[in-house]
Amino acid sequence: MQIVRGKKLEKAADGEFRQLAQESSRVVVDVGTGDARASYRIAKENPDWLVVGVDPAWQRMTQTSIRSRRKPAKGGVPNLLLVNSSIESAPEELAGAADELLVLMPWGKLLHGLVRGDEDIWTGLRTVAKPGAPLTATVGTSIWREPVPRDIQGLPELTDAYVEDVLTAKALAAGWRITGFRLTPAEEAAAVSSSWARRLDAASTEVIATLTAVTAEPAE
Ligand SMILES: C[S@@+](CC[C@H](N)C(=O)[O-])C[C@H]1O[C@@H](n2cnc3c(N)ncnc32)[C@H](O)[C@@H]1O
Ligand 1 atom closest to Cα of 102? Predict the structure, then answer.
């Protein structure tokens, strides 16, 4: 598995991840971590946990990696691991490792796959999860308001009806039981804060869709 260490990308030592996971009380995987600031905050607030940020755009994680590698008194966070990967091809060390998964304000393939219920994205998330692991995903709904970005045109909007009529069955086929769907103003949704959610705080008209799920046996 490729780990971001400072400005470099390095191959993890054999067994490195397993040992870190064994030493921690909980493994949280933040999928599409972006600049990894949310992962950093969670790791800092929960020193007994291992927080794993996963994103294929590894250069965006370097500043947070540099900060996390300082001495703890200077902001260092030894329980943060930043992995260069997309979720649909996650390294095998991560298989079955996550006690909890987060997908906060995704874009690109992660956003499209999450919303459409694409098998590769939902199966990728499932592969990383431990049995019974919860998933929380947030999406800012302004992407579906005019002017709709070109990339979003044709992407179904996350609504109660869409989640119930379409997404629930697709998620279940990939081993996820959807447990909740809420539309809330940005400041209320900031409980699961991320850099993107924070950036949106100023625009208080933003409504955040929060989808929760838990692993389930795939549907027959
Ligand atoms: C808006 S950014 C930031 C997200 C970050 N969670 C936050 O809230 O600040 C979305 C991220 O999703 C990542 N992403 C897109 N497709 C992905 C995939 N298939 N697997 C993992 N990450 C993906 C992008 O590289 C990008 O960094």
Answer: 6
